[in-house]
Amino acid sequence: xxxxxxxxxxxxxxxxxxxxxxxxxEPRMLLSDMLRHTLGLTGTHVGCEHGVCGACxxxxxxxPARACLTLAVQADGADIRTVEGxxxxxxxxxxxxxxxxxxxxxxxxxCTAGILMSLDHLLRSDPAPSEETLREFLSGHLCxxxxxxxxxxxxxxxxxxxxxxxxDA
Length: 169
Ligand code: FES
Ligand code: FES
What we know:
Layout: E1 10-16, E2 19-25, H1 31-38, E3 57-60, E4 63-66, E5 79-81, H2 95-102, H3 112-125, H4 131-137, H5 149-165
Parallel strand pairs: 1-5
Antiparallel strand pairs: 1-2, 3-4, 3-5
């Protein structure tokens, strides 16, 4: 990777939720800050800012990643998906989001965007996860409100509904 000047701003181009953005950023700018402050995509939350809580999780090139541990310059050229990109159509909830609503799987909602982005990825790679798999998978996300029980119920319900809707997926 070429050395970057700390003072200089650097051009970054990325695709976020299918839309291309260009910006000049300082080398130290975090991807989470670029998404929230430069692009105005505040659905991605920031909690601990050191990789522990999972609130900032987005998908980078299809895989969940901590936006607080990623520099914006590292994401140059990447395909990013945030919680704003989950809605299948403007104003509509995805199957997973709808299951969270139905099962009251959020209270303050601070952890929710990150959990949704991780679960969205998991349900694509493992359409029928066990409760144990879900609990282990979600151990990388801290939720102070729900006790996780409704989150697991929502994830299991979403997996079932997705299998019924897309039996060949
Ligand atoms: S804000 Fe990124 S893991 Fe906590
Ligand atoms: S719903 Fe409040 S932290 Fe999870």
